[in-house]
Write a structure and sequence with these properties.
Order of helices and strands: HHHHHHHEHEHHHHHEEHEEEHHEHHEHH
Distance between the termini: 78 Å
Number of helices: 20
Number of strands: 9
Structural class: alpha/beta
Radius of gyration: 24 Å
Length: about 475
């Protein structure tokens, strides 16, 4: 009977049409197979359970006694990203859903402790609370969502973005390159409701139905850029990075690659390029060499005039040099945890679909071989670049080396299936059914990761929530003081 029920539940999981249906079946299967016993046991070689238990008990005691000073001290002293290795992927491979109850209880206790500090009116004033949450945010770090380059496979990103939006799990830092820049910019310039309304197969198809129409003979690119340019301009108009951030609070980042040996790849955002116009950044990031012509970036002056952002320089596809810009995001925002939607057709054939076997002997040996081949190829590119005679040839080799040098994986990775059908989608105009298929595939690929994302990002999302509330309260207090003074 149990075997029959288990088989039925696994079939339900494979054929689930909604996340709730998938989640219910996973929870029943964990109960049936005894995985819940593992969840209840605190011991595991995968994390420091003694440290986590001690921190949990200390926080709970201070919170129950309303000892705010001790609670602040405990959090400042011991709260940092991946404390005790509780983000270890192995802790999320044992069960069908969820992980150790101790980890979930610890994260919930941190959330309640932060709420207690925020609500307290006897120990800390608004400015002291703001200072506390700023410091704890810097120490703990942030989570970023990164959408890779993808060409015609970029609609896969929509499924992950849609899933995160629906469950209020979207990080505030979002990065995109090439096709990923389209959807990073979309969620960074729309409210949640506006974004979800546009992330439908019908709406997406209407926008991108002709992006791979061929150009006329002897043009400077293979595809006619008109449809893509018009779509991007229609989507983002002349909005700047700063205007988008003020509207949504989402810190969007778009990578672009230079057509110059002496220029570095750029990550455009409201910090480094606040007046840059988003639509030109997206156009540049999607300008795959030879497929579309390079683009000059533009910015908005304080007088409302459009001008070149960098005179006499054009940029192209961001995935060539900065497909997954983890290092840059870490430096700018303190990002130390990443969710990557990786659909880059140059790299997905070589990436694992799951973390389940990443520590096996075979997986480690295969990874060693791949890394050795990559380093050898990079060395070869360096040698060739020194001997080729023209700058154009040097630039081509330089870009090839950039592709080889990059790391394409994050902490949590959502990767499409390897199919021959996906190869045909890379440079073909989408249909409603093909877009729907990619979105559904991404949603199902994301479902096994949702509980892990909820658990591992709960603390950073809580810190972000209260920092935002305090910022609003301080702004209102300042307005009230100015009004009173006048």
């Amino acid at each position: 009977m149990s075997k029959l029920t288990e088989k039925k539940l696994r079939k339900t999981i494979d054929n689930a049409q909604t996340y709730d249906e998938y989640k219910d079946a996973c929870e029943l299967l964990d109960e049936l197979t005894g995985n819940n016993v593992w969840k209840a046991e605190v011991e595991s070689p995968f994390y420091d359970y003694e440290l986590i238990q001690h921190r949990l008990d200390s926080m709970k005691k201070a919170r129950m006694n309303n000892d705010i000073d001790s609670l602040v001290a405990i959090l400042c002293e011991g709260l940092h990203g991946n404390l005790g290795n509780i983000g270890n992927s192995e802790l999320y491979q044992v069960c069908n859903i969820g992980t150790k109850h101790l980890i979930e209880e610890f994260n919930e206790e941190v959330k309640q402790s932060l709420e207690t500090i925020y609500l307290d009116d006897t120990h800390l004033n608004l400015y002291e609370k703001k200072d506390f949450f700023d410091r704890i945010s810097q120490a703990y770090g942030q989570t970023a969502l990164i959408l890779s380059g993808a060409a015609g496979l970029g609609f896969f990103h929509c499924g992950l973005v849609k899933t995160l939006l629906e469950r209020d799990l979207l990080p505030s830092v979002v990065s995109g390159s090439s096709a990923g820049s389209l959807f990073a910019a979309l969620i960074g310039t729309r409210t949640k409701e506006e974004a979800l309304a546009e992330l439908t197969p019908e709406t997406i198809h209407a926008k991108f139905a002709h992006v791979f129409d061929f150009a006329t003979p002897f043009s400077e690119s293979i595809f006619d850029p008109t449809a893509l340019e018009n779509t991007i301009i229609d989507m983002f108009d002349l909005m700047t990075f700063e205007e988008a951030y003020l509207k949504t609070g989402i810190e969007i980042n778009i990578s672009v690659s230079p057509l110059d040996l002496h220029q570095q790849a750029r990550l455009l955002n409201h910090i480094s390029a606040r007046n840059a116009i988003i639509c030109t950044a997206v156009r540049a990031s999607t300008a795959l060499p030879y497929a579309y012509p390079p683009v000059q970036l533009c910015a908005m002056t304080s007088q409302g005039e459009v001008r070149p952002y960098i005179a006499n320089k054009k940029f192209a596809d961001g995935s060539i040099s900065l497909d997954i810009p983890i290092q840059q995001l870490s430096r700018i925002y303190g990002v130390n945890y990443t969710i990557v939607s990786q659909t880059n057709p140059l790299v997905t054939p070589f990436l694992p679909r799951t973390d389940k076997f990443k520590n096996s002997s075979f997986s480690m040996a295969a990874n060693y071989i791949k890394q050795s081949l990559r380093h050898t190829s990079v060395f070869g590119c360096n040698a060739i670049e020194k001997v080729v005679p023209t700058n154009m040839a040097k630039l081509t080799v330089h870009k090839a080396r950039s592709v080889l040098e990059q790391s394409y994986m994050g902490d949590i990775n959502v990767v499409p299936k390897r199919t021959l059908e996906n190869i045909t989608k890379i440079f073909s105009n989408p249909t409603v059914s093909s877009v729907r298929q990619q979105i559904q595939e991404a949603e199902k690929a994301a479902w096994p990761l949702i509980s892990r994302i909820e658990t591992t990002t709960k603390i950073s999302r809580t810190i972000r929530f209260y920092r935002h509330k305090l910022k609003i309260e301080l702004r209102e207090e300042h307005k009230a003081n100015v009004k009173k003074a006048s």
